Amino acid sequence: MLTHIFLISALTAACNCLENGLARTPPMGWLSWERFRCNTDCLNDPDNCISERLFQKMADLLVSEGYASVGYEYVNIDDCWLERYRGPDGKLLSDQRRFPNGIKALSDYIHSKGLKFGIYEDYGNYTCAGYPGIIGFEKIDAYQFAEWNVDYVKLDGCYALPYDMDRGYTEFGKLLNSTGKHMVYSCSWPVYQIYAGIPPNFSAIQSHCNLWRNFDDIQDSWLSVENIIDYYGNNQDVIAPYAGPGHWNDPDMLIIGNFGLSYEQAKTQFAVWAILAAPLLMSVDLRTIRPEFKEILLNRKIISVDQDPLGIQGRRIYKHKGIEIWSKPISPVYQSFYSYALAFVNRRTDGTPSDISVTLKELGLINNSGYRVEDLYENIDYGILFPRTKIKVKVNPSGVVMLKGQIKF
Ligand code: GLA
Question: Which of 93, 230, 246, 388 is least buried, going by the fewest C-beta atoms within 10 A?
């Protein structure tokens, strides 16, 4: 026992990092920002404004519509939940008209549904939308979040100095930990440094944050999804090695079911996000989502690619003339051979499906006893295929075919 305690404290001393034991697989849930933004007009738009009613409703639907049962568990508030000023004791105040029962009551409600509760703040003087930031109040705020039983904190980086972030994000993570309440810590630390021309220290970021944003905010368009896909493909050698259980690159929210993506494009976003071992945070109106988009978000086979316990971020292994192949090593592993999830993405716009023909060997599936290959969207089982087998897929414009090759024991 003593040795055990000694080992833990030695580890903490050596690592001096987050060690909160959370996010062993990428977090899954719902986040308000992309779809509901900073709509504070509850007078004219009571159903869509950032208010306790919106989050309660989304929590209800996560459970009643089956999202919770496939793994979506966090209900996360983004910006615009605060009053413009702190209370006289320096504490954060939620907007009194829009959150009349206060944050603790909302947190209790969400927990009563068996879900977890997330909140948003900003390391700087203000949040991106101009509400009070945490600078100068770090300790009060960390303890306030713990008192509210918050499970997840997204800490943005507007109105802050990017050079200070190495220190500031680290210190706030430690403060969160010191409360004794374990909270997933989502950082925007690298993205603001990249914008400022400072190369981020990813090994520090990885050891202090459970997830972090690297690139632009997602918007409701295919172009935005494509830009993110390109960023992750073009920068994979730098960023992919830092992903793993407890710490993830965050390409931003899922916009599936909103206005900007076609059905094919929505399938592509979900497939590529799963290959990237991305956090799966839906930002969609769960009251009105169309069934075909809901079905994508509930695809258990693809979710389990994202949630694979090995936690390896996949990579773009081929890119030529608008055709891309993305590959993620997943479990089970047999005699040091991985299984794989594969996404064949067609970025072309000539309006007919493109054929992709490739041997398993060319995809890196080289184990001679073979792989059981199945299509993860179409429920087609191809049986056992071998490295020399040539597979042929037809991929729709801006669409995807997603396969899994499970190693044969
Ligand atoms: C930044 C973040 C977004 C969102 C907004 C809120 O732009 O990157 O994800 O949180 O701020 O104002």
Answer: 388
